[in-house]
Predict the structure.
Amino acid sequence: MIAVWLSELVVFALVVAGILAERPAALAATGGALVAAAALLRFAPPLRTALAAGFARHRAAALAGGAVLALALPLALRASPYWTFVATLALLYVTIGQGLNLQIGTAGVINLAGAAFAGLGGYSVGLLTLSAGWPAWLALLMAPWIAVTVGAVLFVPILKTRGHYLALVTIAFGFIFNILMNNLEFTGGPQGLKNIPTLRLFGWAFTSKPALAGVELPAHANFYYAALLVAGLTTWALRRLHDSWLGLALNTLRDDEIAARCCGVSLTRGKLLAFSIGNLCIGLGGALYAVMVGFVSPPDFDFGYSLVMLSVVIIGGVDSIPGVVLGACLLLPLPERFRFLHEYRLLLYGAVIVVMLLYRPRGLWPAAVRRYR
Amino acid sequence: MSEPVGRLNRRQLLQGASALGLGWALVPGPARAQKKTVKLAFIGPLTGGTASNGLGGRNSFLLAVQERNADPKTKHHYETETLDDECKPTVAVQAALKASSDPAIVAGVTHYCSVTAIATVDTYHKAGMPAMVWGAVLPEITYSHEYVEITRVNGTMINQNQIAADFAVKTLGFKTFAILHDTTDYGRAHAKWFSEFLEQAGGKVLSTQGTAKDQKDYTAELTRAKADRPEVVWYGGLTPDGVRVKVQMDKLGVRAQFQGTSGIKSDTFNETTGPSAEGALAFVEGAPTEKLPGGKRFLEAYAKAGFKEPSEAYGPFAYVAANLIIDAIEAVGPDRAKVARHLKQTKNANTIIGPVEFDAHGQNTVPLISKYVSQDGKWVLWEDSEYASGKRTLPGHKFKKM
Amino acid sequence: MPPLELLLQQALNGVMLGVMYALIAVGFTLFFGVLDVIHFSHGDIFMLGAFAGLSTLLGLAAVGLRAPVAALPLAFVAAILVTGLVGVLAERVCVKPLARSSPLMTLLATLSLGLVIRESVLIFYPRGADPKPFPQLLPQGGFEVGGVAIRYENLAILGIGLAAMVTVDLIIRRTRMGAAIRAVAQDPEAAQMMGVNLDRTVDATFFLGSGLAAVAGILSGLYYSEIHFIMGITGGVIGFSAAAIGGLGNVYGAIVGGLLFGVLQTTSAALIPRGSEFRDVVAFAVVMLFLIVRPRGILGEQSVERV
C-alpha cells in the first residue's frame, strides 16, 4: 500500500516539476526522469508486475491517494493561475471525453461534432443568464439538457446512416452550428456572448480567491475543484454504466448490430440513449467552460476542437474509461508545455498523434477485456 | 543562479537568431551583466490564415527590443516572450493568462485579431498587466470599459470609415456601392460603420453580402453584386480574402472601382494580386511610416535585420507599442501598476507613426487617416499618386465614362 | 427572382467549382473503394498539388521556359508525380497500417497527417503564410452568350477537368491495373486469390487519386490566380461530402456529387436573402437530408457490403 502511494507521489512530483520547470536544465532533468521511470517499467517486468499487482490489490487506497493528490494540485500550482486554468481545462475534457467515449467507444455512434455540443452547452448558459436573467447555477444545470434536446435533430440520421456517412452527417452538423452561431444576431454574431456572470454558490462567488490549509489560491482554483467534482462524478457514473447490462448491450450493438438485435437489444433505444447521455456530459463540460471563461464565441467551438475531443478518446483508448482520463490529462497540457516551439507546435502535434496511433493503435490505456464472475 | 538564466537567454536568442538568420543576438553580451532583466510579451497570430500579419508584428516587436537593448543608455535588459493566439479567442485567453501569470513579464504588446483582443481584455485587467493592442480595430476593445491596463496604439475603425466614405463620395464622386465583408468582427463592424458614414455622405448601398473568412470562391457574390451595376465594390476584410475578391472581380468582368479597408493594405496584397491590384484603394490609421523620419529608419532597420517576413501594415504599430512600453519601464521601473498608469497618461509621444496620445479609454486619438492607392505594385499615398495628379485615371472613373 | 441569365451565370460559376470538387471527390471514393477508409489528408494533398505545380512553373520560368503550351503540361506531370508519391507515402505510413483497426484510427491519423502537410507548407515554403500568385497561363478574355459571360479560361479548365475524369475512367475500365482496382474494391481476398497483387494495387489507387487532386490543385490555381496553404481544409471537407452524397466507392457518383455541391453553393448564395452568409449551411443541410433519404448516396455504393 505504501509502495502504491509512493509511486503515485513520485508521478505527481514529476508532473508538477515538468509543468513548472522553466529553465531548460530543469526541464531536461524532469523530462529525463520521466523517460527513465517509463524505461524502468518497460524493461523491468518484475517491477512492473509487482506494481500492477499492488495497484490491483489496493485499488481503494490507490484511488484515495489519487484523489488526495488531485485535490492538492492547485496548492502545488498556486504560483501560476495559468497552469491551474490548463489543469481545469483538462478536467473539463475528462467530462467531455467520457461523454464522447460513451457515444463513439461504447456504442459505436460516431460523433465528429463534439465541439458543437459543447458549444450548445456554453451558448445555452450564456443566453439563459444574459437574456433570460437566470442565475449561473440554474443555467448550468439546464444547459446540458438543451444540448441533448438539440441533439435530437440527429436522431434520424443516427438510425439511418452508419460509419463514414454518419461521420459526415456530424461534421456537417458541426459546420452548420458554427456558421449559425457566427451569423445569427441573438447569439452575438462573431463576438459571441460576453460577460457571462460567474458561478455563485451559497454566497461564495467563484471569482474570489479560495484558501486551502491557510494558503491562498488563485481564483481559478474554484473552477478547478468544481471541474474535478464534475469529472469525478461523470467518470464514476459512466464507469457504472459501462459495467452494467446497458454497457454490454451497447458494446454488442457496436460490434455486430444484427447479432445484437437477435439477442433482443433494441437498436433504436440503445443508440439514442448513448448518444443523448453522451451529449449531456459534453454539454455539461461546455457549460462549465462558459461560466469559467465568462464568454463564448464561434471559434471556441469549431471543427478543430471536435478533433481534440476525438483525439482524447482515441489516444487514451477507445471504450476505456481510465484511458479517457489519461488522454485528457496528456493532450490538453502537452501542447501548452510546448508553446516555446511557436510556429512548429502544430506541426509537431500532428506528427506526435500519428506516431502514437501507429505505435499504440489501441490507445495508451487500452480497454480491458470484460470480466464477469 | 546567473548561469542558467544566461544560458536560457542565449538559447532563446540563438533560436531567434537562427530563425532570422543573423547574428545580432550575441552582440550586447557584456553590457547585460549589470542590468536588471525585464521581460516583455508579444501576442499575435503566428499560425493560421492571418499569420503573415502576426509574424510581421512579431518581427517589428523584436526589432524594437533589440534596438533598445543595444542602446547603452537603457537601464534594463529586455527579454521577450512571444506567444501565438492563432486568431482564436480560447487560445488567446490561454496565452494572455500565461503571459500575465508570469511575474517576470511586466507588459505586453497584444493581439492583431479583434476577436482575440476583445476576449482577453478582462484577463489583463484581472491580472493587472498593462497590455497595448497593436492591430485590432474593433471599437469596443477600448470603448467598452475604462481599465487602466488596456491601451491601443492603432486607431479604431470608426475614424477610418468616416474618412473612407467621405473620400469616396465627396472627393472621388462615386455614388453607388456594393458591400462585401467577411463575417468576423472585423468585416462586420467595418461594413456597419462604412455603410453608416456612406449614407451620411450621400452614397447609396446597393447590396450587402457577408462571406465566410478564408472563403475561396466569390464568383456567386460578385455575380450578384454585378447585377446592380455598382460604381464601387467595397470589401471589408483581410488580405488573403481581399486578393480573391479583387482577382475574381476582374475575371468576372465586374466593371467597378475596388475599395478596401486597412486589412488589405499589405505588401502581400499587391504581390499576390499582381496587375489586377492597380488602382485599388485602401485606408489605414496613422501617418504613413515611410513619410516620417523615424519611419524611414524603421523600414531600413527592418530590412537590415533580415527578417523572413515583411513588416506588413501593422508592424510599425507593434514597434511603437514596444517602444512606448520600454519608455514607461525606463521612466517608472518594472512595476506593472506604475507602468500601466504611466502608459495611460502618454501625451504627445513622438513615434514613427506620429504623435501618440491616449484618451480616457486608452485609445490613441490618432489624428490622421492615410489614403492609399495601389500604383505599379506598391501602395502609394493618395496625395503623392499619379491618380491624384491626374496623370492616371482610377478604374472606377474609367468605367463611369464608358 | 433574379433574371434567367443571372441564374445561368451562377450555374456556370457552380459548375466551375464543381469540377474541382469532383476531381477531389473521385480520390476519396477510389480510396474508399480499395481500403474502406476515408483518407482525410486528401484535401491537403490537393493543396500540395497546387504548390508543387506553382513551384514547377516558377522553376521553368527561371530557366526561361514560359510558353504555356510547354510549361503547363510539365507542371501537371511534375505535380501529379509529387502528390502521387506523397499520396502513396501517406497510405503506407498512415492508412494501410491502420486499415484493419477501427475506422476512427485512420480518420484521426489522416486528419493529423493533413495538419502536418499543411503546417509544413506554411513553415517551409518561402513565406508560406501568404497567399501565392499563380501565373495566368490560360488564354484570357471571353465572349457572351445570352447575357452569360463565358471566359476562354473557363472552357479550358472544364476541358482539362473533363479530360482528367475520362482518363481515370479509361484507366479503371480498360487497363489491367484498373481491373485489379475494381477487383480489390469488390473483394480483396478473392482478388488476391485470383493473383492480384494487393499492395501494388492499393499503391496504384493512391497514386491515381492523389494525382487527380494535383490536377484539381493546378486548375484551382489557374482559375483563381492565387493559392493559399489553407485551401485544403474546405477542399477536403467538401470533397468528402461530394463523394458521400454520390455514394462512396462510386466514381460517377463522386462526379455528380461534386457538381451538385458546387451548384448548390452558388445558387443558394444567389437566391436566398443573406444567402452568402448561409450558403454552406444550405449546402451541408442538403447533404444531411440526402444522406437521410438515401443513406448510401445518390448512385449508391458500388461494392456490396460484406457480412
In short: The mean pLDDT of chain C is 89. Strands of chain C lie at 132-133, 142-145, 148-151, 226-227. The radius of gyration of chain C is 19 Å.
